[in-house]
Structure formats: C-alpha cells, structure tokens
Design goal:
Keywords: Hydrolase. GO terms for molecular function: hydrolase activity. This protein is 46% helix and 13% strand. Helix 7 links the parallel strand 5 and strand 6. It is α/β, with parallel strands linked by helices. Helix 2 crosses helix 3, helix 4 packs across helix 6 and helix 5 packs across helix 6.
C-alpha cells in the first residue's frame, strides 16, 4: 500500500475516537489516520455525506459496529474514493422491528438521563465473558458515552433505526475487504459477519478468539494484526 494513503476510522454507537486508540499507532505507519465524527447527523446518508466532505480524496475505510453501517453507506455514495474496506463487528441487514422497539425504549431512557445506566446494563453483552469484570474497558465505555453525549446518542439511534438494507449492494464492492468479528459477539453475532464476507467477492473473514463486540479493546494485538495485513494487501 502507498505509505501516504490516508485511513478513515468510523466508531460505533455511543463510541468515539477512544475505541481506536489501541490500534492507531500501528495503522499510522501506513498513512495519516482520521477518526470520523459521526454524532452530528441523524441519518446514515447525512452522516456518510459529512464524513466524505471531511475525508481525503481517496482513503482506506474501516467501520466498527454502527461505523460499519456508515461505511456501507459511504460505499454506495462514493465507492471510487475507497481504496479498501474493513467491516468490524457489524452487519449489512436493516433493523428488525424488535430491535427498533428496543432502541426506542433506550432512547426514552436516555432522555430521562439514564445513558450511563443503559451502558452499565449492556456491558455484559458487549464483551467476552472473560472480560465482564474488566474495569478498564468499562471505564472506556463510560468515557465514550461522555464524548458522544445524550443528544449524539439519540441522533445515532435514529440513524440506525432508519438505515437501509445493505445486503443487495454487497456484490458491488470490489476493493480489498476485511470482515472482522469476535467469536463471542452477543451484540452483532458473527453469523452476520459471515453473511457479509460471502456477499463481497474476495473478502477475508477473520474471527477473533475470546472476543466480544469490542475487539480493539478486548484483543488489540489480534486486531492490529488483522488490520495491518488488510492495509498491506496489494491493490490490483
């Protein structure tokens, strides 16, 4: 890969630049790293358009969880600008009615000032069972909550609820693609990662062991290996 090729990293729901801190030094060797701000708009189309307006002309793109939804929207809006794509612990399908109902309940609670409680409750599902007592990762989760804020969280949830089904457009992706997931992701089960990898020609699927929904924090070394191999893949 050209050493000057920029890299754009997109965080997930209620997540900020902090989630990528463990991997940035290794990625920075391949080119300048930009963390997309995804808290200012309430639709995937608008978030993607804003990221594109702030991004370099051509770049490698990685999206984690909600960031994967945004990355897939970027691929629809400007595929020619993306040199390579990484989809991390995410999925291509739309929200189910059950998921939407749950999100609306969480949004109501967040408006009542319960965002921290929501994140405390979700922590056991976010991480691998061996990490459920990991105070440092929990601290990271809460720090990101503060970065995003309640209004940002509400906008993100609205965008997630209204996202389109990206599965029909997976076959149009032609750049080198990494699909990364954890073996114990209870938030977005890795069956969805396998579905994406099968839908994108030539995609490489990596399933990290002893890992939940937060691979950058749970398995940073393995995540770095997967991402650096992705960045080093020759673009034909």
């Amino acid at each position: 890969m050209d050493q000057t090729t920029p890299i754009v990293l997109v965080p997930g729901l209620a997540s900020s630049a902090r989630i990528y801190a463990p991997v940035i030094p290794a990625l920075w060797r391949f080119g300048p790293v930009m963390i997309a701000n995804h808290v200012r708009d309430d639709s995937m189309a608008a978030i993607a358009a804003r990221v594109l307006s702030e991004a370099p002309p051509r770049f490698a793109l990685a999206g984690h969880s909600m960031g994967g939804y945004i990355a897939l929207e970027i691929m629809r809006q400007a595929p020619e600008r993306v040199a390579r794509l990484a989809l991390i612990n995410t999925q291509a399908g739309p929200d189910t009615p059950e998921a939407t109902a749950r999100r609306l309940g969480l949004m109501a609670r967040a408006r009542r000032g319960e965002l921290r409680a929501i994140r405390d409750e979700s922590f056991l599902e976010l991480v691998h069972p061996s990490r459920r007592d990991d105070a440092e990762i929990l601290k990271l989760v809460h720090a990101q909550d503060e970065d995003v804020g309640v209004e940002g969280y509400l906008r993100q949830q609205a965008a997630i609820i209204a996202r389109v089904d990206s599965r029909p457009t997976l076959s149009a992706i032609s750049c080198p693609t990494l699909v990364l997931t954890g073996d114990a992701d209870n938030t977005i089960p890795n069956a969805f990662a396998k579905e994406m990898a099968e839908g994108i020609a030539g995609a490489r699927l990596v399933v990290l062991e002893r890992c939940g929904h937060l691979p950058q924090a749970e398995q940073p070394d393995a995540t770095v290996r997967a991402l650096t191999e992705w960045l080093a893949t020759e673009v034909v």
